[in-house]
From TrEMBL:
This is 5-deoxy-glucuronate isomerase. Keywords: Isomerase. One of its GO terms (molecular function) is 5-deoxy-D-glucuronate isomerase activity. InterPro entries: Deoxy-glucuronate_isom_IolB, KduI/IolB_isomerase, RmlC-like_jellyroll, RmlC_Cupin_sf. It comes from Micromonospora sicca. Gene3D superfamilies: Jelly Rolls (2.60.120.10).
Length: 299
């Protein structure tokens, strides 16, 4: 199962994409991810088709043109340096990206066509979640309450070295409503990882670990050693922890999409481990957090 759901950097390359994960390649319906690696002066033009997308600088800056709109992305030196600005691309659009660096394009199959938009780094809600060794930073740049899309949800998580995140383990595989509120949503999820001190494809670099496991009803069993640029797919089941090695920070980009009528990240904890949330009241948030904020002097 690990081999099917852990996709190392380079195994999904399809020019012009250094990484291309379509819903068809993932074996599901909605969520996708692409990564562009552009040299100085690099330019790529592509069609979004039936997917809405974002252009999210991982390292570098770019100019994005879509529907006659020009969006200048100041970007960042790395995912561990700053919160970044980004661009939203609607379905059925032709897009040109010109710049230098590495850019993630999370995507979801969409039914509504919205307008292209610029997302400023200063407007990204930064949340410190958990406490003690479960402390982490969440950049909610495309969370349901932060940025409007048709189906796409995306957030960034930064885990200080030695900490665990995506913890306690949780799942969002069923649509369930209780007392008029949604307690769990069916979502496909992608984890894209980077580890501080390592470039994508650096086989000798530091690594983190990702756990995914299921229930008796829907078994799944993954324990993946992940390096920079690796993917882990979560079609269903409990996921967590994401483990950062001591001495190295762990970054992951979460991309989520599903069939529900509303964008949501509703999930339920593994009932054996949900009690851990209550223990945070007596612990301090890791003083290393936040690891990043908006780049100084820009958006």
């Amino acid at each position: 199962m690990t081999g099917e759901l852990h996709l190392p950097w380079g195994t999904t390359a399809q020019p012009p994409w250094a990484l291309e994960l379509t819903p068809a390649r993932a074996g599901w319906t909605y969520a996708g991810l692409r990564v562009l690696d552009l040299p100085a002066g690099g330019v790529v033009t592509f069609a979004t088709g039936d997917e809405e997308m974002l252009v999210l600088p991982l390292a570098g800056a770019a100019t994005v043109r879509c529907d006659g709109l020009r969006m200048e992305l100041a970007g960042r030196a790395s995912v561990f340096a700053a919160v970044t600005d980004f661009a939203y691309l609607p379905r059925d659009a032709t897009v040109t990206v010109r710049g230098e660096g590495r850019f993630a394009l999370p995507s979801a199959r969409a039914t509504r066509r919205l307008s292209p938009r610029y997302g400023a780094a200063r407007d990204v809600p930064v949340e410190l979640r958990g406490a003690g060794p479960a402390s982490r930073q969440v950049n909610n740049f495309c969370a349901p309450e932060a940025f409007d899309c048709d189906r796409l949800v995306a957030v960034e998580v930064l885990t200080p070295g030695g900490n665990w995140s995506s913890y306690p383990p949780h799942k969002h595989e069923d649509d369930r409503v209780h007392d008029g509120g949604r307690v769990e949503a069916a979502l496909e999820e992608i984890y894209y990882f980077e580890v501080s001190g390592a470039a994508p494809g650096d086989g000798g670099g530091p690594v983190g670990y990702q756990r995914v496991y299921g229930t008796d009803r829907r078994p799944i069993d993954v324990l993946a050693e992940v390096g920079s640029g690796d993917l882990v797919l979560v079609p269903y089941g409990y996921h967590g922890p994401s483990m950062a090695p001591p001495g190295y920070h762990l970054y992951y980009l979460n991309v989520l999409a599903g069939p529900g009528p509303d964008r949501t990240m509703a999930c339920v904890d593994d009932p054996r481990h949900g009690w851990i949330r209550g223990s945070w009241a007596d612990q301090r948030v890791d003083p290393r957090l936040p690891l990043t904020g908006p780049a100084r002097g820009g958006d």
